Amino acid sequence: MLLTGVRVIELGQALAAPFAAEILADLGAEVIKAEKPDGGDDARHWGPPFWGEDAALFHQMNRNKTSMTVDLKDETERARFIELIGTQDVFLHNLRPGVAATLGIGAAGMRQRFPRLIYGELGAFGHRGPLADKPGYELLLQAFGGLMSVTGEPGRGPVRCGPSIVDLGTGMWAAIGILAALVRRAATGEGCLIQTSLFETALCWGGIHSANYFASGKAPQAEGAGHPSLVPYGAFETGTGPLIIGAGNDRLFAKLALVLGHPEWKDDPRFSENSGRVQNRAALTSLINEALAGGDKEAWAARLEAAGVPAAPILDVPAALAHEQTAALGMVQDGELGVRSIAAPLSIDGERPAMRRSAPAFGG
Fold first, then answer.
1. Residue 142 to residue 157: CA distance in whole angstroms
2. Other beta carbons less than 10 A from residue 322's beta carbon
3. Residues 174, 123: contact at Cβ < 8 Å?
4. Report field, pTM of the whole predicted structure over 0.90
5. What are 290's strand-pairing partners?
6. Separation in Å, CA 16 to CA 58, 166, 259, 313, 340
7. How far from chain centre, in Å, is Cα 7?
8. What percent of the chain clears pLDDT 90, i.e. is strictly above it?
9. What is the mean pLDDT of residues 146-152?
10. Residue 168: phi, psi to the nearest 5?
């Protein structure tokens, strides 16, 4: 594994820091999950459903780790924990703002004492600014970062994106920063401080919407399954239910028009170029829905795919997991206690990182 020999301590709760540490663990790092003695990571209890004593969610975020308990309010245990940090390559946490410094494990002190240490700090609103000391959760940051304003159907209330994209994205950014820091340390011998936050991640994930706002001065709106800059690109109604169609350029649109029996659309000045299709979104969407209305979604999908137009049914989670492509990729991994989880979404030299062990039992 790429990170064999790299040692990591994670003092994480819920999703962001545990996910960052899991990425490193999947890549081969030795990860110790440090938990408070009174119940451990709160996510252990975020169920049902459960695998054994711990929530399914906890198992998905904490494979390939070991666990220890530490009472950071106890002076002796805290001193031992700090010495343990000094033996590691990476220490990362998502403690509430100011807590790490109060406990004597803040970035400045740890970096001064252990110059080779890579210190990862994941926060809610970022490490500086008027909201730096404010705690936060996924839902709050999807709202405050603008993401909920562009999620859902036009004219209806704001909707939370189903997956916890802000927490998980923050974990990804932390892992990316830590990997870069490991490369630099190999050359210089010096560690560094890596900082990221849920708010920064939310702003980043909304970057295309922000770019459109900067250029147009118009506040982005919810587009349902659609895209603010591409048409037709979204869900369209057939006689047997919705079908996703992604005609992402003028060539694909011409093919779509031909399959739908309206080759004249590609020469219509309203639709011949993507910019016109975006401006005339409602008119074109109505025409496409009308053309699809008499047919079966599966038949339409087959015809479109045969013509080279990207199209797909909308699968629920069980159907996506049961698909032969999921099996071919080996994306579902089995661990102890019958635990099943989704694997790391990358392969190295053709091999997917293995589940070496399921999420650890509390303190073990």
1. 14
2. 12
3. no
4. yes
5. none
6. 12, 8, 45, 31, 21
7. 24
8. 88
9. 95
10. -65, -40
Question: What's the half-sphere exposure (Cβ side, CA atoms, 13 Å) at 257?
Answer: 19
**Per-residue exposure over 59-82, b if at least 16 CB sit within 10 Å of its own CB, e if not:** bbbbbbbebebbebeeeeebeebb
pLDDT of 363 above 80: no
Query: How do strand 340-342 and strand 192-197 relate by DSSP bridges?
Result: unpaired
| Cα distance between residue 232 and residue 226, in whole Å | 8
- Give catalytic residue positions: 227
Pairing of strands 118-123, 192-197: parallel
How does DSSP assign 289-358, residue by residue?
Answer: HHHHTTS-HHHHHHHHHHTT--EE----HHHHHHSHHHHHHT-EEE-GGG-EEEPPS--BTTBPPP--SP
- In 107-191, beta strands by DSSP E: 118-123
Q: What is the pLDDT of residues 306-322, one digit of tens each?
A: 999 999 989 899 999 99
The pLDDT tens digits of the residues spanning 56-107 come to 999 999 999 999 999 999 999 999 999 999 999 999 999 999 999 999 999 9
Q: Is the pLDDT of residue 13 over 80?
A: yes
| Count of alpha carbons within 13 angstroms of residue 16, beta-carbon side | 29
The residues facing 122 across adjacent strands are 196
